Amino acid sequence: MNISPLLNDFSRQYWPLEEKAVGALKERVIGKRVKKREYILQKGVMCNHFTFVVEGCFKMYKIDDKGKEHNLQFAIENSWIVDYGSFYSEKPSQLFIEALEHSEILQIARNDLFYLYDHFSVFDRNLRIIIEDAFIEQQQRVLQNISSTAEERYLDFLKRYPDLFNRISNVQIASYLGVTPEFLSAIRKKIALK
Amino acid sequence: MNISPLLNDFSRQYWPLEEKAVGALKERVIGKRVKKREYILQKGVMCNHFTFVVEGCFKMYKIDDKGKEHNLQFAIENSWIVDYGSFYSEKPSQLFIEALEHSEILQIARNDLFYLYDHFSVFDRNLRIIIEDAFIEQQQRVLQNISSTAEERYLDFLKRYPDLFNRISNVQIASYLGVTPEFLSAIRKKIALK
DNA sequence: TATTTTTCTTAAGATATCTTATGGGTAGAA
DNA sequence: TTCTACCCATAAGATATCTTAAGAAAAATA
């Protein structure tokens, strides 16, 4: 299995792995191709894998009682996506993870990750840092949700994820921001007129 | 330094420390008393410590350009509070952490924490799990912010933090939920009428 | 105890955002 | 190519939430 995108990410952003750790990881990583609109996680199913996106794009979302989707996270090249709650509690997920494009991923199953944690502390280290970064980013999102208007949140989204907004529809962005597509459209008009 | 509340928390919720790790931790933890309304972090200052609350209650918040406070987090007994962004980036914080009650805390400074990470991998492990839990909780909050009404968010807050809502003012809860105190008052009236 | 500050409530008018409906444009499927 | 589905925009009326102002109750401070 060619896991170099993942190793590169580790050495660029986090702590590089010694040879033995690389070997142990290699044996446990599964590569997959996922077509647009396919799911790698569905509600009611336990989330059994950490997923690293090599190529492509995913959304993780919830469907509420009225049938509306609410996007929690997007993941593109060189990012991780997993329902941490379901993965660690080993309970069925409330969330869906769906490919927005044809994608290539690398996955690690729960038991394999636990093996790696127990035998190479660099995985505790790196995954600690990975989730710390995700936490900080998510904290900014909470802060904006409780303190900013939808227009401010949209402008910040464009600034923060310049690669994403050409790539996904405004419907998806609206769902991420917590507004209706109609209202996002009104916001975009208002911005364009300035 | 008596750090047993912290050690108890580790062994109840996470992985217990071997003796050497306990010793190394003990030498590096600083205990403090903090009076109500005192700050343990202010905007413009780097966040240099992880803080474990032994007794009391804190809020972490931002003040926006209009001078309004927005509560990001509360911390009571046996919980951690830190501005991760400032702590790890070593940049000035945008946030305040202020005591809502007379409190007792245990603190670990950045270099000391790094020492512990490097010499005892159990700290990488435990702090990974601590922030994973915090991430999952915060993710639920994001989901609610983008998908629920203020009334639903308030009812969920009461259910999720039954110990907190007798202890802090509705002004603080409103700021956490992202609504004005006046509107929270209207929500409470509506609920009471049911 | 007396005084000051903070909290909670109420209400009226303003603004942000949603709902529903409609139509045109564009990309994918047959 | 034709058909279908989805996307984006627009608009009118409804609902959620904010702003401002005021007063009474409760808590903190002198």
UniProtKB/TrEMBL annotation, chains A, B:
SUPFAM superfamilies: cAMP-binding domain-like. Pfam families: cNMP_binding. This is Crp/Fnr family transcriptional regulator. InterPro entries: cNMP-bd_dom, cNMP-bd_dom_sf, RmlC-like_jellyroll. It comes from the Bacteria. Residues 20-113 form the Cyclic nucleotide-binding domain.
